[in-house]
Amino acid sequence: MSEEEQQHPSGPRLTSQSIRSFVLRQGRMSDAQHRFLDEMMPKVGVPYRPEAVDLNEVFGRQAPHIVEIGFGMGQSTAVIAQARPDEDFLGIEVHAPGVGGLCKLIEEGGIGNLRIVQHDAVEVLRDMIPEGSLAGVHIYFPDPWPKKRHHKRRLVQGPFVKLIASRLAPGGYLHCATDWEEYAHQMLEVLSAEPLLANTADGFAPKPDYRPLTKFENRGIKLGHGVWDVVFKRVAG
């Protein structure tokens, strides 16, 4: 590990050469996604900047703050935000089609408690989110990188989990879900090794009611595929 990857005052020093929350892909955007991206991001987008932000100021009120990392096309994000109006949600995604898709859902659903950062989640958490400020973090179905030689690219690894734990308030939770069993066991192992986190279950957790079934997940379940949830809470320390 290089010197710049060592601890610094705001938490673990993660760089663009270490863990990233995404892989650049070319995705085709529909005309509607383009339009909603252009029209809505000035209203709901939070530009990345390498300094802490006041989330109460961003949302215009005081409420618990939940971050979702890699929201894909945003369907689950929108459903959760609508079902939990007393909490504020910050979705982080780099891919423009997904950002445009969530912008469309926000506009059509009149969702007022959801904002978007279109940037690498590692840098957003490291640079913009103050320590101890989050009530929760969601990581749903991250890229499993199934080939063993690619496991180092997986998002849920010790340094990133340590960073997330530092941003959670005591009692705040980290909820991961995957349909890749081997990755699920890795998630459980990595989260269990973080001293600031404690498991809320004896191993894997039951699916919380607030996490909706996606079409992809429901199709997988019908085909006999498993889905594993891991829910840990931040302890005092």
Automatic annotation (TrEMBL):
EC number: 2.1.1.33
Chain residues that bind substrate: K147, D179, T214, K215, F216, E217
UniProt keyword Cell membrane present: no
Keyword Protein transport annotated: no
GO molecular function ontology, one term from the record: tRNA (guanine(46)-N7)-methyltransferase activity
GO cellular component: tRNA methyltransferase complex
Top EC class for this record: transferase
Coiled-coil regions listed in the entry: none
InterPro entries per the UniProt record, alphabetical: SAM-dependent_MTases_sf (IPR029063), tRNA_(Gua-N-7)_MeTrfase_Trmb (IPR003358), tRNA_methyltr_TrmB_bact (IPR055361)
A Pfam family the protein falls into: Methyltransf_4
Known catalytic reactions: guanosine(46) in tRNA + S-adenosyl-L-methionine = N(7)-methylguanosine(46) in tRNA + S-adenosyl-L-homocysteine
SUPFAM superfamilies, per the entry: S-adenosyl-L-methionine-dependent methyltransferases (SSF53335)
Pathway(s) served: tRNA modification; N(7)-methylguanine-tRNA biosynthesis
Keywords: Methyltransferase, S-adenosyl-L-methionine, Transferase, tRNA processing
Binding site for S-adenosyl-L-methionine: E68, E93, D120, D143
Protein purpose: Catalyzes the formation of N(7)-methylguanine at position 46 (m7G46) in tRNA.
Similarity annotation: Belongs to the class I-like SAM-binding methyltransferase superfamily. TrmB family.
PANTHER family: 3-DEOXY-D-MANNO-OCTULOSONIC-ACID TRANSFERASE/TRNA GUANINE-N 7 - -METHYLTRANSFERASE, PENTACOTRIPEPTIDE-REPEAT REGION OF PRORP DOMAIN-CONTAINING PROTEIN
Protein name: tRNA (guanine-N(7)-)-methyltransferase
Gene name linked to the record: trmB
